[in-house]
Write a structure and sequence with these properties.
By secondary structure, this protein is α/β, with parallel strands linked by helices. It is built from 9 helices and 8 strands. An 8-stranded parallel sheet has the order 7-6-5-4-3-2-1-8. Strand 6, helix 7 and strand 7 form a beta-alpha-beta unit. Helix 4 crosses helix 5. The two termini are 16 Å apart.
Length: 219
Amino acid sequence: MVLADRLAEVLNTIAATAKRAGRADGSVTLVAVSKTFDADTIRLAIAAGQRVFGENRVQEAQAKWPDLKQETDDIELHLIGPLQSNKAADAVALFDVIETVDREKIARALASEIERQGRTLRLYVQVNTGLEPQKAGIAPDDAVAFVDFCRNELKLTIEGLMCIPPAGENPGPHFALLQKLAAEAGLAKLSMGMSGDYQTAVEFGATSVRVGSAIFGER
């Protein structure tokens, strides 16, 4: 199966799952995760109509996306991997959405760079729903207060919450927790679900899913 066919299959699965869940048509955005794939492979997805992409590393994205964005002006690029504060300036310059705001230091660095560069970025707070010590993300108990801090004190545009459930666990309870926290924080957007569990995420209200290998193949 070629890339365009795999992309169409994922989009059709998202649409069918959303319909079964009683959700509106077009209520779920596909973020195609293009990390580790080269610009020519990404161009195949762009040619097939995909416009929203996710990358894990600022440095890798810098090597590919300036040219790709210049070629296609309606690309929306998401940072979905951990962000170091010393990369905040580069991230603000390149990305349209940053999904991994998870601590005060990063939030302050982003606020400073957004103001300095005069850009408007949409941001998500990453929540460590499984409280995994090796994984980025703010603790669930601290998430709502952190969103309030980002919005009220730093004047950041927090659009939603993001999570990555622990590998090997049923993702449903993690998605349900993220949905609950978003409601408490007054946020409408939920970035959750990857190649192995995006259908479950759609059932639990995901507004965007981050799918890589089901589109691009194994890395």
